[in-house]
Design goal:
This protein has about 140 residues and is mostly helical. Helices cover about 60% and strands about 5% of the residues. Strands 1-2 form a two-stranded antiparallel sheet. The termini are far apart.
């Protein structure tokens, strides 16, 4: 993909149509593509969790691995540009209440609509570490 090519030639037509359907402009798609390429440090054409976390400058935690797995729609262990754009669009269009539901759904493993004690404890451990009982942020 040469630098002189238009964004439409860099992105598969089917993906581009999806992005346009989300009301993303050509300029926004191009900016997202440039950001994606910046995160893809090994220039493989896809992003793994280490590249994503390194770019965001955050730790590799169980919680972050769960979020990444949601973004990795085809379960390849890597995020292609389509998954990147759709995940950002989904995440960025969530309100506070919906973000709570997103987080809840990450841990409602049995899809019961209720977090069991085990599911809740796993969420707290993932967010605050194994010694969550001693973390003042986890109390309350």
């Amino acid at each position: 993909m040469g630098c002189g090519q238009s964004i439409e030639k860099k992105v598969p037509a089917e993906w581009y149509k999806q992005f346009i359907a989300l009301k993303l402009s050509r300029s926004e798609i191009k900016k997202l593509f440039n950001l994606y390429r910046k995160i893809d440090m090994d220039r493989s054409g896809s992003i793994d969790i280490i590249e994503m976390l390194t770019f965001l400058d955050v730790e590799n935690t169980s919680f972050n691995q769960r979020v990444f797995s949601v973004f990795d729609m085809n379960r390849s262990g890597r995020i292609d540009f389509r998954e990147f754009v759709l995940s950002l669009w989904n995440y960025c269009t969530l309100g506070n209440a919906t973000l709570d539901i997103f987080t809840f759904d990450l841990y409602d493993n049995d899809r019961s609509g209720v977090l069991s004690k085990v599911e809740l404890e796993q969420m707290v451990k993932d967010l605050y570490g194994k010694n969550y009982q001693n973390n003042p942020k986890a109390k309350g």
